[in-house]
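Example record used in the benchmark description.
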Amino acid sequence: MFRARIVIAVVALLAGVAGCASQAETVGAASGAAIGAAVGGGTIGTIGGAMLGYGAGRAYDDRQRR
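Model output (structure tokens):
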């Protein structure tokens, strides 16, 4: 039950980020979360992966805008 609440919170967080993020940032966050969960890092791994993926997407956007 506790895990389901965390998953719902992460999905809501990603939906919120998707509303104000570029496509690269959204894809980075989603794929980072998926990789973090697949590695078996649990909640911390999933959230950490999403944060790293979002940062990578943002860096990609910054390089493309030059």
